[in-house]
Design goal:
This protein folds into 2 domains: about 200 residues, MFS general substrate transporter like domains (Growth Hormone, Chain: A); about 190 residues, MFS general substrate transporter like domains (Growth Hormone, Chain: A, Up-down Bundle). Helices cover about 75% and strands about 0% of the residues. It is built from 17 helices and 2 strands. A two-stranded antiparallel ribbon has the order 1-2. Strand 1 and strand 2 form a beta hairpin. About 50% of the residues are buried.
Length: about 425
C-alpha cells in the first residue's frame, strides 16, 4: 500500500461506515412502520410518516447540500452530516422514553432530522471516496465497495428490527429498537472524531477567486439563461427518479406491513424476508456492474422495469400458497418471493436513470445532481400514498401505484430519455 493510501485508510473506513449508515438509518425508518402501526394504532398511511419525514428532508436539503459542499468542502459537510445524524437518531431514541401520547410525534421529528443527515451524506460520500482514492480506477473501486456496504446496511436494518421485536407484535414499542439506535449514534460519534482529526483533501472546494467571481456576478445580476431544467430529457428523468425511489422503498415497506400482520408470518420473519429484498439489490448491483459496459442504460432500464411490472402482477394475483425460502428457512406466502425478486430489478435503476438524464448536460451536471437529490423525496411521498391506498383496498392492491410508476419509468427509457435540446451550449 502506498504512503498516500495508508494515510487515507482511516477516513476511507469511516466513509464506508457512513455509506452503511445511509441505508441502515433509511431502511430502519421504513421498517419501524410495523411498530408505529401497533403501538399507536394508526392507519397504514401514517405508518409511513417516519419514511415520509426522512425523505421529505431531501426535498428541503438536496440543492442547499450541494452548495454547502461546494463552498465549505468535504470536511465541514461531513462533520455537519454526522452531527445532524447523531441528533436525528438521538431524537428517535428519546421517543422510546417519552410519554406515549407524544412518542409518535417525537419519533417522526427525529426521522425528519435524520433525513437531513442522509441527504448530506449522500452528497459527500461518493465524491469523497473518489478523492481519497486518488480518482481513476482506485476511486471508482472505493465507490463500488461503498455501494456494496450501503446494500448491506439496507439488508441488516429490517432483519435486526424484526429480531428486536420478536414474535410479539402486539406489545412492540419504539423502545424495542433502542439497541440499534444506540449503535447508530455510536458510529456517528466515532465518525465525527475521526473526521475532525484527519486531514482531508479539498480539490473541489470553491477557491477565493471563484468566490469573488460568483459574488461579482451576483452584484451585476448576471445569470445563465439555461439550467438543467432547460433539457426535456432531464426533467422527465428527474420525475423518473422521484418515482423510482418511491418504488424502491414502497415495495418492501408495504410487504413488511402485510407479512407482519399475517397470522402465519409475523414481524420477525417479515424483517428477514424484507432483508432478502435488499440483499437482492446487492446482487443486482454486482450483476449491473459486470454487464454495464456491454448493455446500454436504456436497454437495461427497459428490461428491469418490464420484469418488475411482471413480478408485481404475480405478487398481487398469485394464490396464497405458503412456501419455505431456502437458506433462511422461513415460511411465507408465495407472492412474497416475487417481492424479493423485485430487488434485482430496482438495484440498477438509479444509476441507469441518472446516466440517461445527465447525458449531454455538460456544465449543468453538478446542478442536476442537486435537483436529483431533492427529488429523492419520492421515497417518502409515494409510500405514504401507497399506505393510504392500502387502507381502502388492501396491502396487495396498493401495488397498483407502484406499477403505474414503473410504467412511467419504462416510458422514460423508451421515449422520454431522448435529448431533444442539443442546441443548448453545455461548454
Amino acid at each position: 500500500m502506498s504512503a498516500k493510501n495508508s494515510k487515507n485508510l482511516l477516513p476511507i473506513v469511516v466513509m464506508f461506515l457512513l455509506f452503511f449508515m445511509i441505508a441502515f438509518v433509511t431502511n430502519f425508518a421504513g421498517s419501524m412502520g410495523v411498530i408505529l402501526k401497533n403501538q399507536f394504532n394508526v392507519p397504514n398511511a401514517l405508518t409511513q410518516l417516519g419514511t415520509l419525514a426522512n425523505f421529505i428532508a431531501y426535498a428541503c436539503m438536496g440543492i442547499p447540500a450541494g452548495i454547502i459542499l461546494r463552498r465549505k468542502g468535504y470536511k465541514f459537510t461531513s462533520l455537519l452530516a454526522v452531527t445532524v445524524g447523531f441528533v436525528g437518531v438521538g431524537i428517535q431514541f428519546l421517543a422510546g422514553a417519552v410519554p406515549a401520547d407524544s412518542a409518535f410525534a417525537v419519533y417522526v421529528a427525529g426521522a425528519f432530522v435524520a433525513g437531513f443527515s442522509m441527504c448530506l451524506l449522500n452528497i459527500v460520500v461518493n465524491p469523497m471516496l473518489n478523492t481519497l482514492g486518488g480518482g481513476g480506477n482506485r476511486g471508482n473501486q472505493l465507490i463500488q465497495t461503498g455501494g456494496t456496504l450501503n446494500s448491506l446496511g439496507g439488508t441488516i436494518a429490517p432483519i435486526l428490527l424484526g429480531y428486536l421485536i420478536g414474535g410479539s407484535i402486539e406489545t412492540a414499542t419504539v423502545g424495542d429498537a433502542a439497541p440499534a439506535m444506540i449503535t447508530a449514534m455510536a458510529i456517528f460519534a466515532l465518525a465525527f472524531v475521526v473526521i475532525i482529526l484527519t486531514a482531508i483533501p479539498e480539490p473541489h472546494m470553491e477557491t477565493a477567486e471563484e468566490k469573488t467571481a460568483r459574488l461579482a456576478a451576483k452584484v451585476e445580476g448576471k445569470k445563465d439563461q439555461y439550467s438543467p431544467l432547460s433539457f426535456r430529457h432531464f426533467v422527465f428523468g428527474a420525475i423518473a427518479i422521484f418515482f423510482y425511489v418511491g418504488v424502491e422503498v414502497g415495495i418492501p415497506n408495504m410487504a413488511n406491513l402485510y407479512m407482519s400482520s399475517h397470522p402465519l408470518v409475523g414481524p420477525a420473519i417479515a424483517g428477514t424476508v424484507v432483508g432478502l429484498y435488499w440483499l437482492m439489490m446487492l446482487f443486482g448491483r454486482f450483476i449491473g456492474a459486470s454487464i454495464g459496459g456491454k448493455v446500454s442504460s436504456k436497454n437495461m432500464m427497459i428490461a428491469v422495469s418490464s420484469v418488475a411490472i411482471a413480478f408485481l402482477l404475480c405478487l398481487m394475483y398469485m394464490p396464497e400458497i405458503m412456501v419455505t425460502i431456502p437458506l433462511v428457512e422461513v415460511t411465507v406466502p408465495l407472492s412474497m418471493l416475487f417481492m424479493v425478486l423485485c430487488g434485482l430489478c430496482t438495484s440498477v435503476m438509479w444509476g441507469a436513470i441518472f446516466n440517461l438524464a445527465a447525458e449531454g448536460l455538460g456544465k449543468y451536471t453538478a446542478m442536476a445532481s442537486g435537483i436529483f437529490m431533492a427529488l429523492v423525496c419520492g421515497g417518502g411521498i409515494m409510500p405514504f400514498f401507497q399506505g393510504l391506498i392500502a387502507d381502502y383496498v388492501g396491502y396487495l392492491n396498493s401495488y397498483w401505484l407502484v406499477i403505474a410508476a414503473l410504467i412511467y419509468i419504462l416510458w422514460y427509457a423508451l421515449v422520454g430519455s431522448k435529448n431533444v435540446n442539443k442546441d443548448i451550449s453545455v461548454e
